[in-house]
Amino acid sequence: MYEVNSQLPNLPAKNLKRVTSYVPPNAYNVLEDWAKKEDRTVSNLVSRIVSEAVDAYLAKKTTEDEPSSN
């Protein structure tokens, strides 16, 4: 079973998994501006976005997997 809270833990980088992704230049520009406004790297921002999306997916999946009380 997966943990619903997948937020980036305080682990050394060697304990984290690497994902490579390609995005259109305009999307990267938005991510870069967003990251600068939050005083973080693009990589860290994307990690946070992905973690939040995973949490939302798992929360929805958990709700859908619960048996209905009909």
Describe the structure.
This protein is an all-alpha fold and 70 residues long. The protein contains 2 helices and no strands. The chain has helices at 25-37, 42-65. The model has no long low-confidence stretch (mean pLDDT 86). Helix 1 crosses helix 2. The chain is elongated, with a radius of gyration of 16 Å.
Class from secondary-structure proportions? mainly alpha
Poorly predicted parts: none
Strand content: under 5%
H-E order: HH
What Rg, in angstroms, do the CA atoms define? 16 Å
State mean pLDDT (0 to 100 scale): 86
Shape: elongated
Distance between the termini: 26 Å
**Helix proportion range:** 40-55%
What's the total count of β strands? 0
Outline the biggest β-sheet: none
The DSSP helix count reads 2
